[in-house]
Amino acid sequence: MFQYKEEEQNAAMMGNAQQDFIQQLLSGQYVNSVEDLCKPSNTVAVSSGTAGSLNNSAVFNTCVHGLQKRFCKSMSCQSFKRSSTNSGGVSNNKEPQRSRLLEDFRNNLSPGLQLKNLQHHIVEFSKDQHGSRFIQQKLEKASDPEKNMVFREILDSAYSLMTDVFGNYVIQKFFEYGTEPQKSELVGLIKGHMLHLALQMYGCRVIQKALECVNRTQRGELVKELEGNVLQCVLDQNGNHVVQKCIEKVDPESLSFIINSFKGEIYKLSTHAYGCRVIQRILEYCPTSQTRPILDELLDHTEQLVQDQYGNYVIQHVLEHGDLDDKAHIVSELQGKVLMLSQHKFASNVVEKCVTHSTRPQRVTLIDEVCNTMDGPHPALFTMMKDQFANYVVQKMYDVADHIQKRTIMSKIKPHLQTLRKFPYGKHILAKLEKTFIKSGQQMSPPNHCNYEPGNFNPTGINHPATLTNNAYGIPGMSNVSGFNFSPAPNGMNNMTSPQFSPSPFNSPSSFSSFHTLSPAF
Description:
31 helices, mainly alpha, 2 strands, single chain
């Protein structure tokens, strides 16, 4: 058994046997009790044997510190504090001790601190959460001499700061507020490390900021370093953001190697969580000469893509931003399959976009298909109104339909009013229609078998007595249609909102208002 005593001092050189023991000790080979290691005691128990050759306190301190760092749940235990500092007062912890200046700053003991007061401490402050924020704020309004003082001090450590959780923000500030010579020096440090930084969590942010702030020539030089590694970046959680920024900020003629690397890979990329983002950026920013080959390959897989959890966003993007011929191709692919695709979690997004962004004749064709097609004994429209996804498509169709088609939709719905009340998604449609008719001061005509008395319906939204026997649907004895309360509200109606669904954990590259237009976050 060994006893570690705080009073032991004099360190000696370690022999090979002692080094071997340390390695074995740190791996847990000689530990009798991990619990003992975490107790606020001066004693740590280890097995005898090989450990017997260890008689040097400094070496033992290192062993104890390593074990405590590995096993202690609470790093504030007294034994850890004792083992973390040797007799000479030098910390054995890998994390450097804060300087007195930084410690005072963190404890609000340095009022009026300025950049000039941080000389020889800039790198340390840059790697500290609060210190980094302080430097960023000061750089925004700093004079050129102050910027130069800070820049000269961080230059030798710039690459490590680019990959640091807090330091990367200081480098970004120099790309925003630094002088042109300072930006050029930072670009020089990035060259040769572009791929590594693009794939690194914090380095990728520095690259994106550089692409935003440096001149055209420098942007071209940086993006050229990704040649041969484009697909690796596109499929990486960090690198894909860099490729997107390249597409947004670099001249199209400098991006040819990126476009060429996608040949034959469009379907794979469009169905990838990160790749689908890059494809959308190309369609958004690149000229037709570069996007045409991508679109041709994309449209060859329309039916598969509309049903994919990521591919459907790419097709939606084409419907929103593409030309008329590409939109027409997508609509033609969906014709004859509207019912099936509207009931699909992802494809229903695309059907709704088709209804919204197609031409009037195309929209008429899609709406007529669901109104005139039977799904067994019932119209396809009835099936869609009960479905958790397709009911949103019906709502959108009703919103964009012309007067004649609205009447057609209503004629298909009226025979099923009472049945639809039994389905939660059918209620959404009925509520929407009820709001529409109240706004217009009209009433929904009831089925023929209902005893309807027009005089009992009040389109102004003023409450009737509780004994009312009729309502907007003309169904006797029902004052609360479909579970919704039609009591007075602004504009004569209640504010009823359909539930929102989130088909994807990703944020959208643009804002969408309903379930059917959500898209991954970018």
